[in-house]
Backbone:
C-alpha cells in the first residue's frame, strides 16, 4: 500500500508523488484524508518565504479532515472515527499524521468537508481573539479580511458572543457576503479610508478588539478605531510588516498590541486550545450557528492551481483540496 502527497519541486512546480503508508506513535493518529484546507502559509512555503519548523513534515498543509486509519494506543481514538486535525505539515496528501491532542471528533451533523475548514481557523481565532485579546460578550470586534478562511470564522464567533462585529473586505460583493454571515457593519477598504468610514458610522474610537491580518499602513487605523483599553491581535501582514504608528494613541488609550503565529506555539499550548475549541466552538458548528464559508474545492493534484487562485485574491471563504 502507498499514499500520495504533493511535493514542492520548486516554487513554480508541484508534483503528485507516492510514498509508503504512514505510521504513528502511541499519542498520534494517521488519518485517511478526505479534505485538506489551503492556507496562506502554504503559498508562502511554496515560494520559500515560510520554511517549516525543523521537526515538521516538509509537505505543505496544516489541516485535514477524514477518518482515522491508525489510532495510536494512547490516542483515545478508534479506527474509522470521523475527525479533523491540525497537522505539523503534511496535509496535502491522502494520509496525514496528527497528534491526538490536536485532533477533534467531527459530530455526525457536521459535513466532513466543512470540518476541513475548522482546525486552523478555530485555533487562530480562539487563541488570538479570545485568549490573547480577551474578547468578552457584548464588546465590539473589528475583523480585517472578513471573508478569508480565518476572518469569516472570527465574524461568526463574534456574533455568537453577542458582540457588535465590524468587518473589512476589498469589494462590495465581499461586503454583502459579510452582511449575509451576520456582520453588523461591512467596510470596503478600497472605497474610502477606513477612518473616514468608521467616523461616518460613529464607531471610530469604539472598537474593543481588532483581529488584524493585514498590518502595514492599516496599523495606524487600528489604533485610531480602538476604544480605551482596546486590544489589537496581529496575525498576518497582507499589507506589509512595516508600520508607522502614533504611540500617543497607544498611551492615551492604554491599548495592547499583540500578535502570534500558530506554527510557533508549543504542542502543549495547541493541545490546551484544542480542548477549549472542542468545548466552545465545535458545538456552534454542530448547531449551525457557525457555518464556515467555502469558496471552491480542487483535486489534490491541482494544488498549484488552487494556490494560484488564492494568490489572485478572488476567493471569498475557504479553499479546499479533495484528497480521496
Ligand atoms: N498568525 C497565525 O497563526 C495565522 C494563522 C492562520 C492564518 N494567518 C493569516 O491570516 C490571514 C488569512 O489567512 P487565510 O488562509 O484565511 O487567507 P485568505 O483566505 O487568502 O485571506 C487573506 C485575506 O486578506 C485580505 N487582504 C489581502 N490583501 C489585502 C490588502 N492589501 N489589504 C487589505 N486586506 C487584504 C483579503 O481580503 P480581500 O480579498 O477582501 O481584499 C483576504 O480576506 C493571512 O494573512 C494568514 O497569513 C495567520
Residues:
Amino acid at each position: 500500500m502507498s499514499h500520495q502527497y504533493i511535493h514542492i519541486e520548486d516554487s513554480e512546480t508541484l508534483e503528485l508523488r507516492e510514498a509508503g503508508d504512514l505510521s504513528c506513535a502511541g499519542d498520534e493518529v494517521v488519518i485517511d484524508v478526505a479534505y485538506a484546507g489551503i492556507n496562506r502559509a502554504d503559498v508562502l512555503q511554496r515560494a520559500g518565504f515560510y520554511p517549516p519548523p525543523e521537526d515538521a513534515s516538509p509537505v505543505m498543509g496544516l489541516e485535514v479532515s477524514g477518518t482515522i486509519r491508525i489510532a495510536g494506543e494512547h490516542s483515545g481514538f478508534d479506527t474509522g472515527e470521523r475527525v479533523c486535525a491540525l497537522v505539523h505539515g503534511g496535509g496535502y496528501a491522502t494520509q496525514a499524521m496528527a497528534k491526538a491532542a490536536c485532533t477533534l471528533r467531527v459530530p455526525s451533523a457536521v459535513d466532513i468537508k466543512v470540518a476541513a475548514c475548522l482546525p486552523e481557523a478555530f485555533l487562530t481565532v480562539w487563541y488570538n481573539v479570545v485568549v490573547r485579546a480577551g474578547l468578552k460578550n457584548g464588546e465590539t470586534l473589528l475583523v480585517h479580511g472578513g471573508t478569508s478562511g480565518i476572518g469569516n470564522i472570527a465574524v461568526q464567533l463574534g456574533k455568537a458572543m453577542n458582540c457588535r462585529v465590524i468587518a473589512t473586505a476589498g469589494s462590495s460583493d465581499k461586503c454583502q457576503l459579510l452582511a449575509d454571515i451576520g456582520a453588523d457593519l461591512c467596510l470596503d477598504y478600497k472605497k474610502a479610508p477606513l477612518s473616514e468610514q468608521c467616523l461616518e458610522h460613529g464607531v471610530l474610537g469604539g472598537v474593543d478588539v481588532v483581529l488584524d491580518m493585514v498590518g502595514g499602513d492599516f496599523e495606524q487605523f487600528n489604533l485610531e478605531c480602538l476604544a480605551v483599553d482596546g486590544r489589537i491581535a496581529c496575525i498576518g501582514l497582507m499589507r506589509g510588516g512595516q508600520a508607522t504608528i502614533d504611540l500617543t494613541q497607544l498611551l492615551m488609550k492604554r491599548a495592547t498590541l499583540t500578535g502570534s503565529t500558530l506554527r510557533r506555539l508549543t504542542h502543549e499550548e495547541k493541545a490546551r486550545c484544542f480542548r477549549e475549541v472542542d468545548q466552545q466552538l465545535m458545538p456552534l458548528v454542530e448547531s449551525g450557528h457557525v457555518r464556515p464559508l467555502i469558496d471552491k474545492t480542487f483535486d489534490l493534484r491541482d494544488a498549484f492551481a488552487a494556490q494560484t487562485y488564492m494568490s489572485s485574491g478572488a476567493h471569498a471563504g475557504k479553499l479546499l483540496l479533495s484528497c480521496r
In short: Residues 39-41, 120, 124, 144-145, 147-151, 169-170, 174, 189, 213-214, 235-236, 238-239, 260-262, 310, 313 surround NAP (CB under 6 Å).
